[in-house]
């Protein structure tokens, strides 16, 4: 999916026409096809490095899937640098961490942001993200939501962190986002090997921030099946 030059921080792409929406729809189709075929519903999005575009990819994919009549839940389980609340213009005073600490119930944790689209913000940053995500309550929460949603996208920190391994273990599959020209082959290989070692299935790779032409500062996403 293509991101234009004036791409503002954490932008939610709402327009239907243009290269960017076309790319998002393309990725959406690939994911839906593979998910159907392999019976996948809960998908983690991770990357090799920081800032490659995981959160941006999640919110736009989720938004486009919801527009396509899929019931979608986005969970911000990046408890170190949470940003999912931003494009949806939500406050992040409470969320997943409160739920995991048993301060909120399930219903209070889930917020509707658009038709067919619900979000769980991270909540206040914890001092012990890895321990919190390791709680059985996290897996139980995700498993409970499977009944109500067609797709659940789970935002995670980069794959090297223990948090991602835990998140991956409660998801059905993962998408790796790589930043074109920045992520090296070795980094991607390490990321894939890490997933494999943890038995985390990889549904595909999104290549992000590709310059369209030599002197064109547009960026776009590209989906590559593993
Ligand atoms: N395709 C794109 N074109 C241009 N800018 C992009 C694109 N995708 C993401 N960005 C920008 O790159 C920055 C990082 O994006 P984002 O926060 O989605 O990455 P992330 O992988 O979730 O980062 P983190 O590792 O910190 O969680 C943001 O400023 C975002 O606006
Ligand atoms: Mg992020």
UniProtKB/TrEMBL annotation:
This is non-specific protein-tyrosine kinase. The keyword Kinase applies. One of its GO terms (cellular component) is plasma membrane. It catalyses: L-tyrosyl-[protein] + ATP = O-phospho-L-tyrosyl-[protein] + ADP + H(+). Keywords: ATP-binding, Kinase, Nucleotide-binding, Transferase, Tyrosine-protein kinase. InterPro entries: AAA_dom (IPR025669), Bact_polysacc_biosynth/exp (IPR050445), P-loop_NTPase (IPR027417), Wzc-like_C (IPR005702). Pfam families: AAA_31 (PF13614). Its EC number is 2.7.10.2. Residues 41-194 form the AAA domain. One of its GO terms (molecular function) is ATP binding. It comes from Listeria booriae. Belongs to the CpsD/CapB family.
